Amino acid sequence: MDGLAEATGTSKTVFYRYFHDRRGLQQAMGTWAMEVIRRSLDEAGKPDGTPEEALHAMIAAFVDLGVRSPTVYRFCDSVVTAEDGAGAFLDDVVDLLSVRMGLTGPTERLWARGAVGFVRSCTHDWLADPRSADRHSTEQFTTRLATWLWASRKDDA
Asked: Which of 4, 42, 91, 141 has the most CB atoms around it within 10 Å of its CB?
C-alpha cells in the first residue's frame, strides 16, 4: 500500500477509505481485470465463424493477455485461485465458451469446464518458460491447444 500511495501521489488513508485493506484493493483490481478478460474473450469468440474458430480465437485472446501483460495475468490468476474469486469467473468463461461453441448438454458443459482448466493450466506453465515470449511461438502454442481440445470433443456427446 505504501508503494501504491507513493506512485499515485496520495496517502494510504485514501485507499483504506475505499478498500478497507490490501485484500479489498486486490479484490477490486481482480474484479476489474477479470472484466477486461471477459470482454476480450467475448469479443474473440463472436459467433460469426465455426465453433472451432471460436475456440481458437478465445484461446488466442487468453494467451495473448498473458504474453502482453504477464503481471496482470499472474495477478488475475492469483485472484481466481482464491476461494472467493474462482467460481464466478470460471463459470462465466465456461458459459461463454459453451454459447460460442453451441454446447448445451451436460457432457458438453463438462468438456467446456475441462477445456477452460486445461488452457489456464497450460498457459500458466508455458508463460513460465522464458522462450515463450516470441510471437511465432505464441501462435504455435495457441494452435496446439486449440487442436488438442478440438480433437478431444465428441460431436455426439
From this structure: 141
